[in-house]
Amino acid sequence: MNFNSKTEKRCHYASLALFGFFGQVAWCVENSFLNLYVYRTITTDLGIVSAMVASSAVVATLTTIIMGWVTDRIGKRRPFMVYGYLLWGISVAAFALCSIQNMQTLFNLDRAAAVTAAAVGMVVVDCIMTFFGSTANDAAFNAWVTDTTDSTNRGKTEAFLSILASAAYVVVFLPFEAFGITANKYYDASGAQVTSPVDGGTTVTGNWLLFYLLIGGLVLASAVAGFFILKDAPDLKPQRNMPFKELFYGFRPSVIKRNKYLYLVFLTLAIEMMANNCFFNYLIIYLENTMRCADYLWGGYLIPMGLIYGLGMAAGLIVGIILDKRNDKAKFILPGICVAVVGAVGMYFCSPQFMPVGQTTLWLFCVAALIQATGHSIVTVVCLATIRNLTPAGKVGRFQGIRMVFYVALPMALGSIVSGVVSSSDKYITGYDEFGHAVYTCPPVIFLLTAIVSVFAIIPTVFLLKAPQGALLKPAPDEEAYLCKDVQE
């Protein structure tokens, strides 16, 4: 994108950073903190977490398909981003209503019924939040990024957005978890405070109302700032005559055939993301309850999480910078998959199933997790940048829905369900709380599942390695000719 002035350039990069960062703040809540909130305050049954993850993935995909088509037809991304983030922030704050105590008070329920109502409420509010978030971020913001970048800077852009995701986790987790604002406090049957749940003991939950109001407020504030600095790409034009059937443009067999390399990259990304989702949604629960970090490490899981994903994303940034200077981008994918598989296998063996709980096991686990995160970052940065290169011009919004199918819906639904079913087995019950409800642990087998699924990503990668030189740098030639014909008509 060419800028007419330094001010315009600064506004562009400020918009990229602002909407990229606060979008990741909101998704951090959706992808990790909601799971933690449910586990700590409502139920330890990981099947509920899986249901929440899967349902939001479906909503996110359908929303992006529809709203991506709408942004293409109207020829604007800005209003969907600004107003979408505004409503997104409000919906984040609404999670504060979904608590067992509120359900008992509002509907006069006993505790067992209130647990069910709170769990259902979380799923419903999560879907509402996801609708606004996917409209604003997945459909509008991601299309805007493609509109305003090209093959010379998309690697760096994807890496930068990945770093913003890590920064968002630091901003969300550090102040609330390190200082115990959202942490639980546990007491045994005699009333003495202990570090983890015990049979017959009680649990006092953290200040989640403050958490949801503050995070929702930050996302809302980013929308207000967007009113003043955000601009659409100058060459983005309305397509008023675009029929409703174009909503499913990316699902046509002829389109898939014409853009075969684009869909091979989609498939590679889907498999790798499914592998990552086999454990990622449960990682904090695993570190806190299975590795028992809080028993011997200040800040609990915060230090290992920061090391793992901070360094992993730094590796992704390096790859992104190198990627923009290379034409053989696909050659990075296979090594990235292999690195991710080795790391996941290491995470499985560096666990209480094979080693005693303690700092030595934890740091070995962190080394393995860093290896996995590095490999995963390499694969995702290469795939996402290549997808932007291969997305047909003039149809960017419509392809955001296809991107969501492969990047979010299939991976989150399948990956989380597989792990949730395995983790909800009765053999992983570690005890019962003061109400007689089972307390589940999170088993290391989720990392073995991750490694197994990652291996399958090699299959589409092999076909990408056989692509002609330059085939992964721009949309398929036939598609470009098709677009020219549309313009002439």
What is this structure's SSE topology?
Elements: H1 6-41, H2 46-74, H3 78-93, H4 100-107, H5 111-147, H6 154-178, E1 185-187, E2 193-194, E3 202-204, H7 208-229, H8 253-258, H9 260-277, H10 283-290, H11 302-323, H12 333-349, H13 359-390, H14 396-423, E4 429-432, E5 438-440, H15 445-455, H16 458-465, H17 477-488
Antiparallel strand pairs: 1-2, 1-3, 4-5
Helix pairs in contact: 1-2, 1-3, 1-5, 1-6, 1-7, 2-5, 2-14, 3-5, 3-7, 4-5, 5-14, 6-11, 6-13, 9-13, 9-14, 9-15, 9-16, 11-13, 12-13, 12-15
Write down the overall mean pLDDT.
84
Strand order of the largest sheet: 2-1-3
Class based on secondary structure composition and strand pairing: mainly alpha
Head-to-tail CA distance between termini: 27 Å
Portion in helices: 55-70%
Q: Characterize the quaternary organization of these chains.
A: single chain
Beta-strand residue fraction = under 5%
Largest sheet: 3 strands, antiparallel
* H-E string: HHHHHHEEEHHHHHHHHEEHHH
The whole-angstrom Rg is: 23 Å
Give the number of helices. 17
Instruction: Count every beta strand, where a strand is a DSSP E run of 2 or more residues.
Output: 5
Subcellular location: Cell membrane
Keywords: Cell membrane, Membrane, Transmembrane, Transmembrane helix, Transport
Protein name: MFS transporter
Pfam families: MFS_1
